[in-house]
């Protein structure tokens, strides 16, 4: 289909004052969802950072091919490097070399991954960073995971002692790495836990820029399913309360109210470490991109050159 017949919908003026907060947003896709999009240029602002989630069982060949295709369309591609599905140092080096050599990628999201038991030598993002392979390869950006509502895989008691210690380690690593770093979070549904967590990070000496995860518009049942699977914490009550309201039960969830609260805090305190929004398109990439465009989402980064 020609791009003449498949154009990105024009953004309408933001109706909720969210344009500043959503401007420069990033979005997450998987190879199988990306394959359903004929041309990302029809949906996303030029230069948008597109994360590619690496789900256990996805061949590295599919990941690299997706990265090459999306980078070739002019987007800033950041693949996941999940430590618990990487067999060993040699495998990690191979992945880095493939992304660089075949797709021109020099950035990645370094995280533990969504499996409970490591399948190889690594169990944490810190171990991957400690290999030095990313710095040796000249990666210019290394993003790491943040957990506004904790992570029971790390703190089984429901606290945050270990995740906060890991955050301090990542802060220290950022000061000895040449790469630019930021912390990307899981999505949540309430502003207060996110804002309190960001304040605690700052109080603990962690000032990495925060890219807040937001769940894009989706059917309520879909949203609840993903929230439970992804281990969303107490803010899940927002969805549970909504499910009890018959007038809202059949309406899709949109993160507009949450985003407005975060935007207001950012506007009141420009130095607050929340830098931008990261969107999880749980209801589909097109639906998510259209919601962002409607509320003022634009990219501020220059597009990458086609590969």
Automatic annotation (TrEMBL):
<dbReference type="GO" id="GO:0016491">
    <property type="term" value="F:oxidoreductase activity"/>
</dbReference>
<keyword id="KW-0560">Oxidoreductase</keyword>
<protein>
    <recommendedName>
        <fullName>5,10-methylenetetrahydrofolate reductase</fullName>
    </recommendedName>
</protein>
<dbReference type="InterPro" id="IPR029041">
    <property type="entry name" value="FAD-linked_oxidoreductase-like"/>
</dbReference>
């Amino acid at each position: 289909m020609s791009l003449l017949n498949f154009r990105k919908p024009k953004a309408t003026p933001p109706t909720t004052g969210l344009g500043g907060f959503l401007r420069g947003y990033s979005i997450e896709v998987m190879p199988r969802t990306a394959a359903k999009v004929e041309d990302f240029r029809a949906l996303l602002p030029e230069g948008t950072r597109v994360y590619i989630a690496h789900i256990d069982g996805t061949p590295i060949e599919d990941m690299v091919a997706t990265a090459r295709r999306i980078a070739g369309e002019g987007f800033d591609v950041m693949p996941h490097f999940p430590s618990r599905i990487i067999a060993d140092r040699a495998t990690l080096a191979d992945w880095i070399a493939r992304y660089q050599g075949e797709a021109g990628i020099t950035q990645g999201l370094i995280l533990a991954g969504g499996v409970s038991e490591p399948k190889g030598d690594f169990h944490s993002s810190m171990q991957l960073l400690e290999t030095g392979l990313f710095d040796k390869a000249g990666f210019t950006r290394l993003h790491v995971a943040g957990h506004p509502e904790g992570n029971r895989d790390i703190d089984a008691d429901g606290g945050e002692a270990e995740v906060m210690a890991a955050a301090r380690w990542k802060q220290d690593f950022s000061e000895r790495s040449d790469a630019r770093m930021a912390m990307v979070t899981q999505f949540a549904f309430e502003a207060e836990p996110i804002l309190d967590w960001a304040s605690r990070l700052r109080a603990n000496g962690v000032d990495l820029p925060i890219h807040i995860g937001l769940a894009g518009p989706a059917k309520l049942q879909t949203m609840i399913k993903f929230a439970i699977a992804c281990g969303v914490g107490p803010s899940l009550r927002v969805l549970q309360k909504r499910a009890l309201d018959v007038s809202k039960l059949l309406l899709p969830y949109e993160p507009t109210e949450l985003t407005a609260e975060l935007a207001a805090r950012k506007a009141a305190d420009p130095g607050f470490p929340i830098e931008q929004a990261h969107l999880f398109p749980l209801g589909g990439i097109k639906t998510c991109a259209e919601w962002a465009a409607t509320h003022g989402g634009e990219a501020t980064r220059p597009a990458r050159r086609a590969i």
